[in-house]
Amino acid sequence: MPLDPQALASWRFPEVTQDYSDRDSLLYALSVGFGAVPTHPGEIDFVYEKQQRTVPTMAAVLCHPGVWLHNPAFGVTRNKVVHGEQRMRFHRPLPPAGRLRGTARVLAVEDKGIDKGAVVHLERSIAERDSGELYATIVHSTFCRADGGFGSGFGEAPALHVVPERPADVVVRLPTRADAALLYRLNVDRNPLHVDPTFASKAGFPRPILHGLCLYGIAARGLVQALLGWDCARLASLDVRFSGVFYPGETLELSLWQDKENISFVGRSAEREVVVLNNGLAVTRRQTE
User: Fold this and answer.
1) What is the mean pLDDT of residues 258-279?
2) What positions carry a catalytic annotation?
3) What's the whole-number mean pLDDT along residues 110-137?
């Protein structure tokens, strides 16, 4: 059935507050692959509290609004919803522990057509609770596969980045753990699709799949490892489209193109030779900033 764009446009989200600890930050870092080489000087600060640094993509799991699209007023077909795209802007480094508040709004809705579905773009802001200093702005784009054909949408939808056609400048291979989804789900997303073989089978998958946002964090690790000298503070933004399914235990092959401050990227399952991340763009800051 078509979704109701007016209901989405008028929806008001309650503010979400959250306290998180250094343990939460350590868990997130481990769940997206930091610490794979425990003694590496570039990785240890993300998984050891002595001089702890926080992975910037952790903002994606903080002050989360929950499964808000399941509200029947929106007319969304729940079992036909997938995470389509993720964009994050990093305004300042997250501390290892903190007190946060999060706000959200529906930024835009696109009607792709009656047989092509719709896209709902949700914008979230994560800030320090007392000062209001902004840590991150997130645009989470949800593809509603069965809900197009309602006419016109609203708002300005983000444009997709086009990656270069030349051969990649750098290719990095990132093995993932067989239990990666079991670890990542402890952050926020306990969807049984990522843990229950029976549930995954009913959804059409041979086994549980990895969370898209886990793969997003792993890609961020690959970027900072390969081109930013493990300096996550240089990562100003990170955009990507989720274009395929990735299974825990597979190897993410990340192709990178660097053009001044812009890093384009595409991610593939090395074992199945399937593109799982596309239209990737990371914008970086200079080291002197």
Assistant:
1) 98
2) 189, 194
3) 96
Has residue 289 got a pLDDT over 50?
Answer: no
- pTM of this prediction? 0.95
- Which residue do the tokens 């240089």 mark? 234
Q: Which fold has domain 160-289?
A: Thiol Ester Dehydrase; Chain A (3.10.129)
pLDDT of 215 reads 98
Q: Do domains 1-158 and 160-289 have the same CATH topology?
A: yes
Instruction: Locate 268 and state its tokens.
Output: 């593939």
In degrees and rounded to multiples of 5, residue 80 shows phi and psi of -120, 25
- In the chain, where the domains are located: 1-158, 160-289
How does DSSP assign 156-209, residue by residue?
-PPPPP---SSPPSEEEEEE--TTHHHHHTTTS---GGGT-HHHHHHTT-SSPP
Mean pLDDT, rounded, for 248-276: 98
**CA dist., res. 219 & res. 216, Å (int):** 5
d(CA 149, CA 217): 34
Radius of gyration of the chain (CA): 19
Architecture of domain 1-158: Roll (3.10)
